[in-house]
Write a structure and sequence with these properties.
Layout: E1 11-12, E2 17-18, H1 19-23, H2 31-41, E3 47-52, H3 57-61, E4 70-74, H4 83-92, H5 96-102, E5 109-113, H6 118-127, E6 136-140, E7 146-148
Parallel strand pairs: 4-7
Antiparallel strand pairs: 1-2, 3-5, 4-6
């Protein structure tokens, strides 16, 4: 890695903190916000899938909740990738494909919902303090995987 001499207290001026400040921030918990949506819609078939985007990134987590015969089409430009990921990629000379296959790239949780209810669910989540991006769609496909458009 280009930045091999970094320590936890090493400053990263362009990110406004130290290595520890930027990369050891607590994981965001989505339980309360997601439960509001799930409880509101109850047994209606509105929420079709949920994926917490952890290690293995979007390609490793979203396919776990996609039924056979479908695939996720995701537009990588539909949300801003946080500066920390761009910095890490450059500092570590990490290939883009590896970044997308390992890190969440700024998306901590993905909900797959009925398009008819998407506006209301967005409103509910934003009122709960979440930032919501519409990142793509689920479509018929043979891969059962994530297709980045």
């Amino acid at each position: 890695a280009k930045e091999a001499g970094l320590k936890a207290d090493s400053p990263i001026p362009e990110l406004g903190g130290t290595v520890a400040d930027v990369f050891l921030a607590p994981t965001r918990i989505y339980t309360r916000s997601i439960l509001k949506v799930v409880r509101y819609y109850g047994t209606k078939k509105v929420v079709h899938g949920m994926a917490h985007i952890t290690g293995a990134g979007i390609p490793g987590n979203v396919p776990r909740v996609i039924p056979k015969g479908l695939e996720a089409h995701i537009d990588r430009k539909s949300w801003p990738v946080p500066p920390a990921f761009k910095w890490m990629q450059k500092a570590g000379d990490v290939p883009a494909k590896e970044m997308w296959n390992v890190f969440n790239m700024g998306l901590g949780f993905v909900l797959m919902v009925s398009p008819f209810y998407a506006d209301h669910i967005t409103e509910m989540l934003e009122k709960a303090g979440e930032t919501v991006y519409r990142i793509g769609s689920i479509a018929r496909g043979t891969s059962g995987e994530v297709v980045f458009d």
